[in-house]
Amino acid sequence: MPRLGAHVSIAGGLPRAVDRAEASGCEALQIFTKSAGQWRAREIPPAEIALFKRRLRQTRIRPVVAHNSYLINVASADSVLRRRSIDALREELDRAEALGLDGLVMHPGSYTSGTEAGGLKLIADGLTDVLASCAKGRTRLLLEHTAGQGTNLGHRFEHLAEIIDLLGGSPRVGVCLDTCHLLTAGYDICSEEGYRETFEQFGKLVGFSRLKVFHLNDSKKPCGSRVDRHEHIGKGCLGLAPFRRILNDPRFRNLPMLLETPKVDTPQSRRASDIDPFDRKNLATLRRLLRTNQAKTSPAKR
């Protein structure tokens, strides 16, 4: 069965994220290792790293991935911003390694004033630089499929395949698929035929061996809108059917599936017991879809 979880706040320290994840009923976890809106990052004390790892062992929450800063853009045509982005990405990968994380999810980048082809080449060159400096690491870089807003790259499977090809098929690079992004990028996963065609394309162009994580989010915007606005499970343009298909698709049965759905408006406090009720509700919805389908397909008792 897929391992369900959510992106959880690290307010109060990284071990608090594990406490919140456990209280919410997460089996897998995504975090930021630093503020997503700042370049500067505090050094993580060794004692905090040790406690974070110990809490993961105790709770058996796995896999755990991080999402990198939203400021990073290794496809930028601005040489100063691109250099700063590459350095920041390297630092984030080092932090993920120190924490023993399985992956670092990253948006491929935006080509801004350049070209699409040039942007893809800049991404691949930047990732080559980062991976070369972390050659002995085990944490994968996970290219997140995007909604395609503006000049964002990664909203077509062809983009992801091109980056991986330019990297020589590096085993350190995987893919993260986001259900909201798939729909708004133009992949109709709502209908049975659209779902089948979408993943046939993915398998052919990228390959299922590259797929390491799902982000499960409904969408406020319709198919092909190329607008990234997440919604609670079953409350947006996707509805429940695509989630039921993904959760029960045997090709994805061993993957972590993580929520990035809206949180409560009030900030979380630093108490370990504080959880987001929306995460609990969305996880419960996903588990019902998983159980309902299994009940329908299991043989009748004699």
Number of DSSP-assigned strands: 12
Task: Give the helices and strands as they follow along the chain.
Answer: EHEHEHEEHEEHEHHEEEHEH
CATH architecture: Alpha-Beta Barrel
Report the C-alpha radius of gyration, rounded: 19 Å
CATH homologous superfamily classification? Divalent-metal-dependent TIM barrel enzymes
Strand order of the largest sheet: 1-2-3-4-6-8-9-12
Describe this structure in words.
The protein has an 8-stranded parallel barrel. It has a two-stranded antiparallel sheet with strand order 5-7. It has a two-stranded antiparallel ribbon with strand order 10-11. Helix 3 (79-99) links the parallel strand 3 (64-67) and strand 4 (103-106). The protein contains 9 helices and 12 strands. It has helices spanning 14-24, 46-59, 79-99, 116-133, 157-166, 179-184, 192-205, 241-247, 277-297, and strands at 3-7, 28-31, 64-67, 103-106, 109-110, 140-144, 152-153, 173-178, 211-216, 218-219, 230-231, 256-259. The chain has a single domain (3-293), classed as TIM Barrel (Alpha-Beta Barrel), CATH 3.20.20.150.
